[in-house]
Amino acid sequence: MNKLEELFRGKAKSVYNTDEADRLILLFRDDTSAFDGKKIEQLDRKGMVNNKFNAFVMEKLEAAGIATHFDSLISDQESVVKRLEMFPIECVVRNITAGSICRRLGVEEGKDLNPPTFEFFLKNDDLGDPMINEYHIQSFGWAEAEHVEKMKQLTFEVNNVLKDLFLEGDMLLVDYKLEFGLYKGEVILGDEFTPDGCRLWDKETRKKLDKDRFRQGLGGVIEAYEEVGKRIGVEF
Ligand code: TMP
Ligand code: ASP
Prior knowledge:
By secondary structure, this protein is α+β, with helices and mostly antiparallel strands. It has 2 domains: 3-82, Phosphorylase Kinase, domain 1, CATH 3.30.200.20; 85-220, D-amino Acid Aminotransferase, Chain A, domain 1 (2-Layer Sandwich). The protein is built from 6 helices and 15 strands. It has helices spanning 46-63, 100-105, 134-139, 145-168, 212-215, 221-232; strands at 3-9, 13-18, 23-28, 31-34, 39-42, 70-73, 78-82, 85-86, 89-96, 112-122, 131-132, 171-178, 180-183, 186-189, 198-202. Strand 13 and strand 14 (186-189) form a beta hairpin. The model has no long low-confidence stretch (mean pLDDT 98). The chain binds thymidine-5'-phosphate and aspartic acid. Residues 11, 33-37, 129, 211 line the site of aspartic acid. Residues 90, 92, 99-100, 121, 129, 175-177, 197-199 line the site of thymidine-5'-phosphate.
C-alpha cells in the first residue's frame, strides 16, 4: 500500500489517501488540543502512544464483536483504517459526572450515573460542539433514524467492554466520546479511542489519567496515558 496525499488535517490526527480505494492511513501527530482547538501543544511521544493505545483498544472491541474501522498498525504513528463516510456527530456515554455535564446541569464532579447517560454533540469546533438531540439529527439530515439507533446501541456496547477492561487495571471509565461512519452500508466505529477522548480515573485515588491533565494544566500528560496503557496491557 502506498500513502498518497493528505485528505484532511484534524487537531491531533491527519488522514491520508492510499492507492487502495477503501483504505486510509491515520497519522497520530504529537499535537494535543483542548477547548475546541483553543489550547494546542506538542507533547513528545504522544502520537506513538495514542496510535498504539488506539490499536490495542480497537482490537479488543473487534474481539468483542464490535465492528471498527481499524485495520493494522504500520508504524509508530500510523495505522491503516477502512474508509468510512463519517456522521458529523459525537456520541458520549457518561458513567460518572465530569466535564461539561457538571457545568450544564450544576452537578458536582464524581457522582455515579445509574443508568449511564447518553448525549449527542454536533462535530463543529466553530460552534463549540453544541449538544444536540435525535430530533435535530433527523431534521437536519445528519443521520437516518436506523443509523442513530445503531450508534446508540454500539456506544453502550463499547461501555460494557471497556468499563471491565479498565476496571481490571484499577481504573474507572468516567466518560468517553465515539464517532461512527458508514462502511458498505453498515454503521461502524471510526475515529479513535485514546485518553484524548475519554476520562479515566484511578479507582482508589481518583487521580485523573486522561486529557483533563492537559485541559487543567496538571502536567504528566503522556506519562499518565502510558500508565493507563501499561495497566491494560498495551506495549509501547
Ligand atoms: P465533555 O465533558 O466535554 O462534554 O466531554 C465528555 C467526554 O467526551 C470527555 O471524555 C471528552 C470527550 N469529548 C471529546 O473528546 N471531544 C468532544 O468534542 C466532546 C464534545 C467530548
Ligand atoms: N471538546 C474536546 C476537548 O475539550 C475536544 C476538543 O475541543 O478538541 O478536549
